[in-house]
Specification:
- By secondary structure, this protein is of the alpha+beta class.
- It has 23 helices and 23 strands.
- Strand 1 and strand 2 form a beta hairpin.
- The chain is elongated and about 110 Å long.
- The two termini are 58 Å apart.
Length: 712
């Protein structure tokens, strides 16, 4: 079954994201300090990266950890069932785990959940063996795979207590020993993961923020606002369908069987207590498993903001399998015990003896039928899946992507991130629900950027909606369609309108009319106090030079004191200039830009934006930029002294702290622990309106100079 489902579904959404992160690790980003944002802890990524390092970065290798974990999980389910109950229980639990539809499907994709479930089962098996330290380590590793493990806290505590004190002559001492060793083992893994989340991960504490957001503890996290999805009735109906799909048996059969198992365990525990005997271990554990499953579903139905997918139910799946296996083994044991009594001649006994075999036969046929259908369905739909062909499409996209291009696409960004690994690419969502607001801002503010949009088959209906939103300004020009028909790629270009602007008659050569037109456009968009444009001939080179002097000038989120822009031998792109209402050059020898930002100007703008700052001093020197700020926060006086310097990277500029004191407390030692950014980088490395990139930053004498250069 599992081989039939192996790697037939392409890496597309989450699976592609995980594979890309793991591939980055295998290529040298060992601490995940780059832009490898995920809401999952790092253990799965390191496991997958190890396979990539051994066998190479490939789709089939990305799925291998989940596939092997699924097989090992079957072994652990068998071992737990056998040790807790009997050989019959172990075999039935392993059989159901091996062929149930969702378990088969999870083994064939590169999600974290297969490894998560196996690690959870491993931890339960170790605790059952009373290896509490190693059980704690396994619990920590399960948390390191996916933070959902924290929800298993009550069940882990219950399992540790039962396994520690069951038939022990000194239960208090045994419980203390078990808890101490389990916590110690768990801490060995848990605290490094927490350290990674705080001090190494690019998006700090994201794995914990995701938990509190999903539980509805907070309404807003950096990812967005939380909103309770659907009604309670709808959620219950969805979960019942998911359980039927996950186990391969209708929930109408599951519910009474589940209830019967609970009644049998409760009855045996009460009967043993009434007779002064110690209840059986598997009855205690079965009650804990059932109680936790009910608690898990309660939280899932009534508290989670977002249901997620069937993968969020998958961790409780083996527990349900064990409970069913215990029920079948119980019925089998009862018939065997009756067979050895004088009741064996009772005429109804043969029918009762057939009950467990009948139940087992129904389950076997049901599970086999659903598993076979699932494998057939996966194979059939894989070849016609909307995501099929993304790999070949990505190869074609390599000729389009680059530093001056952007691809807008929904639902395929993570897939492109994996298949375009190592290729400079920039992708963004186009967000129809927001009327393409961000896309339009890019189209208008980045005239030199080649803009494209990629649709996959499930979203073909959005092509006309996007066209309608852009109508009158931009149009979609078809570039290609994938061989499978699953992807359509368009270039976004200005609409060819019948322009009436008189400048359209001036042609490509820069002249006085273009100078006056440019002055008018800059004045309207930037509204500077001073604006001068000088056109001259360089005596040494003979080149035509256009010098723009503007003050003040917009610079990132601030205003610079002034900017000087020098363009050599410009040839105008008439249509693009009129469409953008901005001077766009078809050709030029070079562009040089020089922004000047004085400390005094920066102080004034910061104080205007943050009125709670009562005193602010900025001193720029060649060595560093020193900042002193004081003000009140929540009624308390706060004084901050710090110094920093700019560190220019390829796509952004970092701010490196050199000193920081808060109310005379030196905290620089603390900042050195953080390997991730305490301050978000400045996105100032490109001036899109003039097709120029940052080449250097100079700071001295209370003035910062930013130099840009463009060439064609």
């Amino acid at each position: 079954f599992r081989l039939g489902s192996y790697n037939i579904i392409p890496l597309f959404s989450d699976t592609a994201l995980y594979a890309r992160i793991s591939a980055e690790i295998s290529k040298g980003d060992y601490w995940l300090t780059g832009p490898n944002a995920s809401d999952k802890p790092p253990v799965f990524f390191y496991v997958q990266a190890a396979f990539f390092a051994l066998f190479g970065v490939h789709e089939s290798v990305a799925v291998l950890p989940s596939f092997l974990a699924g097989l090992i999980g079957v072994v652990f389910v068998y071992a737990i069932g056998k040790q807790v109950h009997s050989e019959v229980a172990g075999c039935w639990a392993a059989f159901m785990m091996a062929i149930s539809p969702t378990a088969v499907e999870m083994s064939g994709v590169g999600l974290v959940d297969g490894l998560l479930v196996t690690t959870i089962l491993w931890s339960f098996w170790l605790l059952l063996k009373q290896h509490f330290f190693w059980g704690g380590v396994a619990i920590g590793l399960a948390f390191g795979v996916k933070q959902t493990t924290l929800a298993f806290g009550p069940l882990y505590l219950y399992w540790i207590i039962i396994c520690a004190i069951y038939r022990d002559p000194d239960p208090i001492r045994s419980l203390w020993y078990a808890l101490k060793n389990s916590v110690f083992g768990f801490s060995i893994v848990f605290f490094p993961v927490v350290y990674w989340s705080i001090f190494l991960a690019e998006q700090r504490l994201k794995i914990f923020m995701d938990i509190i957001w999903r539980l509805g503890i907070v309404e807003k996290v950096p990812a967005g606002y939380g909103k309770f999805q659907g009604t309670i009735e709808w959620r219950i109906s969805v979960l019942s369908e998911w359980f039927s799909q996950m186990i391969g048996v209708s929930w109408h059969f599951l519910a009474p069987a589940f209830a019967l198992g609970i009644v049998l365990s409760v009855g045996r525990v009460l009967h043993s207590k009434m007779n002064g005997r110690t209840p059986r271990l598997y009855d205690w554990l079965n009650l804990g498993v059932v109680g936790f499953a009910i608690f898990y579903l309660y939280v899932y139905v009534f508290h989670l903001h977002k249901l997620g997918g069937i993968a969020y139910l998958y961790p409780v799946f083996p527990l349900v399998m064990l409970s069913f296996a215990f029920l079948i083994a119980d019925l089998h044991a009862v018939t065997e015990s009756l067979n050895g009594t004088q009741l064996r001649r009772i005429i109804v006994l043969p029918g009762f003896k057939l009950l467990p075999w009948l139940l087992a036969g129904i389950l076997t046929i049901w599970l086999l039928k659903n598993s076979i259908n699932t494998v057939k369905h996966n194979i059939k739909t894989a070849y016609s899946a909307p995501s099929q062909g993304l790999n070949s499409v990505s190869k074609r996209l390599e000729e389009y992507v680059g530093p001056k291009s952007i691809i807008f696409t929904n639902n395929t960004r993570w897939g492109l991130g994996y298949y375009l690994l190592g290729v400079h690419n920039r992708t963004e969502d186009y967000q129809l629900e927001k009327h393409l607001k961000y896309m339009k801002s890019v189209l208008y503010s980045e005239p030199y950027t080649n803009s494209y949009i990629l649709f996959y088959r499930s979203l073909y209906h959005e092509i006309e909606e996007v066209r309608k939103e852009l109508s009158g300004q931009f149009t979609l020009h078809p570039e290609f369609e994938s061989a499978e028909g699953n992807f359509r790629f368009f270039r976004i270009i200005p609409e060819n309108l019948n322009y009436t602007d008189p400048i359209a008659k001036q042609g490509l050569v820069w002249n006085n009319e273009w100078e006056q037109w440019t002055k008018k456009q800059i004045q309207q968009r930037w509204q500077p106090d001073n604006l001068e444009i000088e056109t001259r001939i360089n005596a040494q080179t003979g080149n035509q030079e256009v010098l723009l002097s503007v003050s003040p000038a917009p610079f990132h989120l601030l205003f610079a004191d002034s900017v000087e822009i020098l363009i050599e031998n410009p040839l105008m792109n008439v249509q693009q200039s009129i469409h953008s209402k901005w001077p766009i050059f078809m050709k030029y020898e070079k562009i040089e830009i020089h922004f000047i930002l004085r400390d005094q100007t920066l102080e004034e703008q910061v104080r205007a934006k943050y009125p709670q700052i009562t005193n602010l001093g900025i001193q720029t020197s060649r060595k560093e930029i020193r900042v002193f700020a004081s003000g009140k926060m929540n009624g308390d006086l706060l004084e901050i002294r710090s110094s920093f310097r700019f560190s220019q990277k390829n796509d952004y500029t970092d701010i490196h702290l050199r000193e920081i004191q808060i109310n005379e407390w030196d905290l620089f030692w603390l900042t050195r622990i953080f390997k991730n950014r305490l301050i978000q980088p400045l996105k100032i490395n490109r001036q899109h309106l003039f097709d120029s990139n940052l080449v250097r930053i100079e700071s001295h004498s209370r003035v910062n100079h930013f130099y840009y250069k463009g060439s064609r």
